[in-house]
Amino acid sequence: xxxxxxxxxxxxxxxxxxxxxxxxxxxxxxxxxxxxxxxxxxxxxxxxxxxxxxxxxxxxxxxxxxxxxxxxxxxxxxxxxxxxxxxxxxxxxxxxxxxxxxxxxxxxxxxxxxxxxxxxxxxxxxxxxxxxxxxxxxxxxxxxxxxxxxxxxxxxxxxxxxxxxxxxxxxxxxxxxxxxxxxxxxxxxxxxxxxxxxxxxxxxxxxxxxxxxxxxxxxxxxxxxxxxxxxxxxxxxxxxxxxxxxxxxxxxxxxxxxxxxxxxxxxxxxxxxxxxxxxxxxxxxxxxxxxxxxxxxxxxxxxxxxxxxxxxxxxxxxxxxxxxxxxxxxxxxxxxxxxxxxxxxxxxxxxxxxxxxxxxxxxxxxxxxxxxxxxxxxxxxxxxxxxxxxxxxxxxxx
Amino acid sequence: xxxxxxxxxxxxxxxxxxxxxxxxxxxxxxxxxxxxxxxxxxxxxxxxxxxxxxxxxxxxxxxxxxxxxxxxxxxxxxxxxxxxxxxxxxxxxxxxxxxxxxxxxxxxxxxxxxxxxxxxxxxxxxxxxxxxxxxxxxxxxxxxxxxxxxxxxxxxxxxxxxxxxxxxxxxxxxxxxxxxxxxxxxxxxxxxxxxxxxxxxxxxxxxxxxxxxxxxxxxxxxxxxxxxxxxxxxxxxxxxxxxxxxxxxxxxxxxxxxxxxxxxxxxxxxxxxxxxxxxxxxxxxxxxxxxxxxxxxxxxxxxxxxxxxxxxxxxxxxxxxxxxxxxxxxxxxxxxxxxxxxxxxxxxxxxxxxxxxxxxxxxxxxxxxxxx
Lengths: 398, 372
Description:
- The structure holds two protein chains of two kinds.
- By secondary structure, chain A is α/β, with parallel strands linked by helices.
- Chain A is built from 13 helices and twelve strands.
- Chain A has helices at 21-31, 44-63, 77-92, 108-119, 137-143, 166-175, 195-198, 249-287, 314-320, 341-345, 350-353, 367-385, 392-397; strands at 9-10, 71-74, 99-103, 123-127, 148-152, 179-183, 202-206, 217-221, 292-293, 304-308, 324-325, 356-360.
- In chain A, the strands form three sheets. In chain A, strands 2-8-7-6-5-3-4 form a seven-stranded mixed sheet, with helices on both faces.
- The longest helix of chain A is centred in the C-terminal third of the chain and has 39 residues, at 249-287.
- The relative contact order of chain A is 0.16.
- By secondary structure, chain B is α/β, with parallel strands linked by helices.
- Chain B is 40% helix and 13% strand.
- Chain B is built from 14 helices and twelve strands.
- In chain B, strands 2-8-7-6-5-3-4 form a seven-stranded mixed sheet, with helices on both faces.
């Protein structure tokens, strides 16, 4: 296969992950021969599907140290975040709790949920972050008041990979009787995360960021002490009334299988990815000393880098690296070529924010791919910064 | 444990995935790409979604930009119920739980004994209150199969400046549907009732309609439904929509099987009541009360023999409840408690109907003998 036609190397694991073939193998029978509706309690096909859904629920729960009945299946982390944020606000508003605290760098779906609530008269405080992307705990404590119902802070960031001090935030909230929600889409299955011990009340989980299928996610809803929320989608009363709609058995099975694999392999996988990340960063720094690493260098996902190459607009760099599947930031807004609001919140000047590339490494990334990617990016950056001139390395490649 | 002979007659709860859809989905699941990503993998996912959107649009005679993919029929219905603030909601008494559930205040249009909605009552409700309204009336009922007078309801609604939404989850691929001919402004579809996968559905709505998103976030689906698209699920939905013509072509065969079942059961038990028998029904649905035998007893006995049916909708958690649809039709509670739903599909055979009839009749005779 020629260089040109080879599929690009996938370095966008924060946008989505491939469905692990082992996960897919577990899902397939539930698409075809075992097709019952898990709500059909009157017959064998339905009960068989229900049993599979419950097994999956237990697998998801085990990954985060929860009880199975604390897991609510949803269509994905976006829905989970909407359910947690709007659900907490709607449930508690009649009791005089009408204030939410979140970070300016949260995922769009948390920010948009908050914006929708603001239109309903809920107060929202958007806290700034430090230059590394971390929350300022003193600032957070100061933002809380007696009407605060919920604090929502992402566990690990989708663009800059930064891992927030969840246990500390949870302790602040617990002491004041405030619910703590965390968007765990990027963190669950990548970092050890025990919802019960860390004191998180609501935790969003995504299937397709965890080598499971798209179209499925979950929300952990603590039972002791009970986190009370209102449903976002009502109807047949599935998921103990918190989320109606026919449960998609194969997708639930896929999320369960993905959770079980993550639990078994997380420790070794995180170690391996950390090695690849260091290899990547060292390679870039050796070739491009001007490159800037965005987000805290240590407190971050093992598989994430976010780099700015001064003077090289990100779209130009991506266009110059057709052999690599990269992104500028959140996939949700990938088509917008505005500089990321997240990087702006870190205090990055627009020129640097517009020159940032997100690199996501994952389960199927190899050391050879990292070497190739580093070389490709370095060559492209040199070419683009030398005023369009072609370097000798680039000339050899063409 | 599944008994050796398994007869699945609960197609209104869910249908098996079509092999063509399964094959397309297995391919899609094997490829990694977020449809919003601009790289090659992302563009391939986007391309697959847009092709499916065209197929789903064609299923109901809609334009592509009217199709908004959701996680299923329930989410689509809830988007209608919660996404049009400022409109007075008028919902028929026989709607699915996802339209009659909490989430918004609404007025209810009563149903008639025959299983259809009372259009005269609808007209009065609209005339009484001039606020802009939204009327929701399903195209075919999930429990009785009764086909509702949606185009008449649409004319009435439009005369009063109201919008009309129709939940076509059970009607799709069983009846030919043309959204514009029906006069529907909004329509709900579900993939897993037409041979696509569970976990995908669509709301059909003009892009000009100001619809507040139920799930907010990254701006997918033109800002009307956020969340990374379920690419494989949408692809499976598209294949099932494309093959809907084959389903429609088989409708007459299925209606004949259903009618044979109905005649055989009534021949054995002349006092068994068929619901909505006097109005046009879906070709595949039979809702029947076995005199004085509770539905729970029937479904248990049928299940033991390997005949899978349901007692009402397959939604709620763990227990049988009295059908709100039959209640709305004015069926006496005693009789409603004896009703089961038998629903057929494209792979239902003559032998399946024999199995059903044999088992049902033997349950009926046994309980009569016990009572005597």
